[in-house]
TrEMBL record:
GO cellular component: ATP-binding cassette (ABC) transporter complex
Transmembrane regions listed in the UniProt entry: 30-48, 60-78, 108-133, 142-166, 230-250
UniProt name for this protein: Inner membrane transport permease YadH
GO molecular function list: ABC-type transporter activity
Source species: Haloferax massiliensis
Length: 258
């Protein structure tokens, strides 16, 4: 068997293992975001939405849907990659992949793609939950698919970096709860940038989540406060850079060797 065939076979085996790892544990993978987003839609969408009515001509409950999808997708993509890498380091079974004939790019590709898959599945689950509370349509399907793929791959790549960097499980919790989620909440999930003072608008534009939330919102509603083409181009370049960094870190053994 050629090295190329071994690489493809190994990539598929590692990808399959990583996907089955979260699919076989639905109570950990799908139940928490299901409960959390039912609460979000009930409290923010239904109760608060009756008072706010519309933003940018869109019912409030529908306006927050894309942001909640982004929150669920990127959080789970990041969490899956960071936990998988760190848990493999902690229990030393990541050495099985490192000593296999797999290339570093194939290893990284399997971890990133499996984690992005979890992010997309959770995002789809959030969209399904939203459909029970309001009518959900897709105005720009190309942009919706493109942004969902890019942002989940990006945060899966960032999760790999986090998993290599973390020294204990508390570091993983800190990154997800105290860095990632606040950025999403201040990324225009529950409000329009036009509704806040000019100074805060300019500061918000430094938050990459603004572009992700608006990109997915444009895919669903055809409404955005930033240029979707520019956002997609920048996020795509950033994703390629982060995944490239993952390969470099694996090649150098960062966090993988004592």
């Amino acid at each position: 068997m050629s090295l190329a065939s071994l690489d493809v076979t190994g990539f598929y085996a590692l990808l399959r293992r990583e996907v089955l790892r979260f699919v076989r544990r639905p109570r950990n993978t799908f139940v928490p975001p299901f409960i959390t987003n039912v609460l979000y839609f009930s409290v923010f969408g239904v109760i608060l939405g009756e008072r706010i009515n519309e933003i940018a001509g869109v019912p409030y409950i529908l306006f927050i849907l894309p942001g909640l999808i982004v929150l669920g997708a990127v959080s789970n993509a990041f969490e899956n990659a960071s936990f998988s890498i760190f848990h493999g380091r902690w229990n030393r079974y990541i050495e099985e992949a490192l000593t296999s004939p797999l290339s570093y790019s194939s290893m990284v590709g399997a971890y990133v793609l499996s984690s992005a898959t979890r992010g997309v599945l959770v995002g789809a689950l959030v969209a399904l939950i939203g459909a029970f509370f309001t009518s959900v349509g897709v105005a720009q399907p190309f942009y919706l698919v493109a942004f969902m793929l890019v942002i989940t791959l990006l945060f899966a790549g960032l999760g790999v970096v986090g998993g290599l960097w973390a020294d204990d499980f508390d570091d993983l919790t800190m990154m997800n709860q105290f860095i990632l989620r606040p950025l999403v909440f201040f990324g225009g999930v529950f409000y329009s940038l036009n509704e806040i003072p000019e100074t805060f608008q300019q500061a918000s534009l430094l938050n990459p989540m603004v572009y992700m939330v608006n990109g997915v919102r444009y895919g669903f509603l055809g409404v955005t406060e930033v240029d979707p083409n520019l956002s997609l181009g920048v996020l795509t370049a950033l994703t390629l850079a982060v995944v490239g960094l993952n390969v470099v870190l694996f090649r150098r053994g960062y966090g993988l060797t004592d």
